[in-house]
Design brief:
Length: 295
């Protein structure tokens, strides 16, 4: 038995022109749909530049409500093309309260659900704690017509706990809209180590949970408007891994791309029978995982 899900991942460079970015995303979505995609995922914060390279209160003006303009735009596309679309938005929940939120638009254009990014970084060039309140919706898969989507966002991808909790809640695949890149000041060896680590940790989530993993990352260079850093060279490399961590598809580092892949959702059943990690978990001995550190 097999249950094939044809998926498309849109990898793009972004500008400060919101309408241009949305048009580029829509073109990628349409291309994927024309090639038979039932599910299309966009990268993290795809409506604009990655603004978290510096801190400025004026940038909160970029946020929007959910439902709002972007969900309406993506919903119309989903309904027209009869596909499920995953987007990523800067959510304005209330004055002074903002989230980094992924949204799922069902084939009829309705909002199937949303996920608010749980792990928020605060590093040079990634000052997200200034902008985003940590998510409060938990690790809950979103039920859609194409399956139960375990949606996580960027920094979440480094945490095995997040992937495991989505798997334990019945996710059929893990999806990571992402915005990650190199500091141009780093040498090539360091850049290679960072990208390899990013790929490896996400493939490990596929293996540990017996689930397919889909990752959509942005590409292109985005300067730091303050001039305090050398900006960020987003490394693309969007990819899909099967439930044993095997590569099913992968995009390049420096070009816009629409990555197409057929994912067999039934294969997880067989993989979990061969490697029954969920069966053999020692849930009676993991209480210390809720502690910050074991002193």
């Amino acid at each position: 038995m097999s249950r094939i899900l044809r998926a498309g991942l849109v990898q793009q460079s972004c500008t400060s022109d919101r309408e241009k970015n949305l048009a580029e995303s829509a073109a990628g979505i349409r291309k994927a749909a024309a090639e038979g995609a039932q599910l299309v995922m966009l990268q993290e914060l795809h409506t604009g530049l990655y603004f978290c390279q510096h801190e400025s209160t004026s940038l909160f003006d970029l946020a929007e409500p959910i439902p709002g303009p972007s969900t309406e735009y993506l919903g119309k596309l989903a309904r027209e093309l009869d596909i499920v679309i995953v987007g990523s938005l800067f959510e304005k929940r209330a004055p002074g309260l903002y989230h980094n939120t992924a949204v799922v638009l069902e084939r009829d254009g309705t909002l199937a659900g949303k996920y608010r990014k749980m792990h928020i970084p605060d590093d040079p060039g990634y000052y997200e704690k200034f902008y985003f309140t940590p998510g409060d919706l938990g690790f809950t898969p979103i039920q859609t017509s194409v399956g139960r989507l375990g949606l996580l966002v960027c920094w979440d991808q480094w945490y095995p706990e997040a992937a495991r909790l989505m798997a334990l809640a019945g996710a059929e695949l893990l999806l990571y809209p992402t915005a990650i890149g190199w500091n141009p000041a780093d040498d090539k060896a360091e850049q290679a180590r960072q990208r390899d680590a990013w790929i490896t940790i996400q493939r490990s989530h596929a293996v540990a949970n017996g689930l397919p993993v889909l990752v959509a990352n942005r590409t292109g260079f985005e300067p730091d408007p303050t001039g305090q850093t050398e900006g960020s060279q987003f490394w693309g490399s969007s990819f899909v891994a099967g439930p044993q961590g095997e590569f099913l598809a992968q995009a390049g580092t420096d070009k816009n791309a629409v990555l197409m892949v057929d994912v067999d959702l039934e294969r997880s059943e067989n993989v979990r029978r061969w490697w029954p990690f969920l069966r053999d978990r020692r849930i009676d001995a993991y209480e210390d995982l809720t502690r910050r550190f074991r002193d």
